[in-house]
Each structure stands twice: as C-alpha cells, then as structure tokens.
Amino acid sequence: MQYQLLASDFDNTLVPFGEPKPRPAVVKAVKKLQAAGGRFVLSTGRGYCVVHKEQLGGIRFDYAITCNGACVVDKNGTIVAEHPLTNEEMYALVDFCEDYNYPLQFNYRDAYYAYCEYDALKGFYDAMPKSGLTCLDGEDQDRHLIDMPHAAFVVMPPQELAHFNEKFGHLNLHFMQVGGVGKDGWCCYDVVRGGMDKGVGLADLCEKIGLTLADAVAAGDSANDVGMLKAAGLGCCMSNGTPDAKAAADRVIGDVREDGLAALIEELWFDGPKAEPSGRDLGSAWGEMEKAGVSE
C-alpha cells in the first residue's frame, strides 16, 4: 500500500531535543517524499504563531496540525479545520488561575497571550531561548473580543487539577501534562476542548483533503501523540519515545538521533530497507522534556 501523507511530531521526532533544526538526512528525506507526491504534515502542540521556519531547516510543510489538533492550517497558515475554546471554558480557566495566581496563557492565531501572571510566563520562556516560544502581555484580558483561542497553557501544582475539576469538571476540558514535575513541584499543561487531540486534527485534515486515515502515517514520541498514533493507518513511535506512545503505535522505529524518521520515509515511500528501531537506550523522553522545559 502506498501511503499518501506523513504526519510528524516536532520535538524529539522531527528535531532532537537541544538541536536547532532537523538533521540534514531528515530534511532530505522529507523533501524527497514531497517531490514524489507525498504530503508532509507537521503535528505539534504549539500554536501556528510559534512555528518558526528557521526551526524546520528548509522543510516546508503542506499542512500543520497545531494546538494538539485544535487548529489545522495549510502551508499558508489558512485554517482548514478548527475547534476553538468557548467563552465559558475561557472564563473558567481565568477564574481559577486568578484565584490562585497560576500562570495562564491563551494560544491565538497571531500570538500567545498571557492572561494571568505575564511576568512569570515571560521569564519561563526567556529561560529557554532556543525553544522559539514567547508570549505577549494579555492581562487586560480583551484579546478574545477579536477571535477565540484554540488552546490554553497553565502552570500549577498537579494536585490542583482535581481541584479545578471539582468546580469545572462539567466542561470536560482536556489537560495534557507537558514535561515532568518541576523542582518547585509544579507542572505545565496544554489545555484544549474535551475530546481534542492530534488524532482528531489528523482526521479533520484527511476529511478535508479527500483522504482516509488509512492513507496516513503518523510518527511521534510522547503522550500528546497517542491519539494520532492510534488514528493513523500506520502509527510509528520513535525508539526514544515514552512507554505510552510505544504502546499506542503499530511499530517502533529508529531513534531521533539516528535519523529514524528519514529511514521510515525511505522504507515506506522508496522501498528502502526496513526502518529498524534503534538499539540505544537514551532513557525516557519525559526526562529529556523536563531538562528541556517544553515538548510539543
């Protein structure tokens, strides 16, 4: 079977942690895939506003699944499908985070806006200059009068998630932990509407462009890739991936630092040798996420 589309996660799938862009072999393979008529889809927890061309090493995606599936765009940034937060969902997050002074940002089309604790969030991003992430001061809380955000980002102690759900559980918001628990005992969470994940974004995209999920290959390495790995016709987890991502995948492929994605492309699209998983044990990707601060 000839697959029509490859959807790839960004951090530690397309680009190794700590490196500024994809390695040359991966860039070459993706461009070769596209020249042969395949479509390359970037799939990330990041918003479109912080997907920077220089971090893609010359790769030009055909589509991007952003905000963990809540917003799908084409190569020009035009929205193909979207599931923005509602006013009620926004107000619940603002109400809770204001009460306890927890940093809260909303991910809009043009930028990340911090609605609560801007200085804390700005300092968080400034400490990771290579991440390409930043935010604007939105503490006047009026940006949503223009349009609605597709996702939110919250920093709080993990036990507070149960506290939030006691009050606002009826909203069924989907909290996805990003990285490990910090030294202060707090965690970072991406937040989208209930039922949203990268798998939904992939399904939306396939429907819009006239493909089926069976036509799609997905590659990822961590918890927020699980839905996409399960949804695709072929789900592939990097050998450096987390146990839950490996369990969700149809197969495990090579390590990101051994150009595992390039080997997969050569195998599936150009009848190359089977892309065997790496034998290296680099430890849990969650540990690397904690060191890097953010994974998308």
UniProtKB/TrEMBL annotation:
Residues 276-296 are annotated as: Disordered. InterPro entries: Cof, HAD-like_sf, HAD_sf. This is Hydrolase. GO terms for cellular component: cytosol. The keyword Hydrolase applies. GO terms for molecular function: magnesium ion binding; phosphatase activity. It comes from Faecalibacterium hattorii. Keywords: Hydrolase. It comes from the Bacteria.
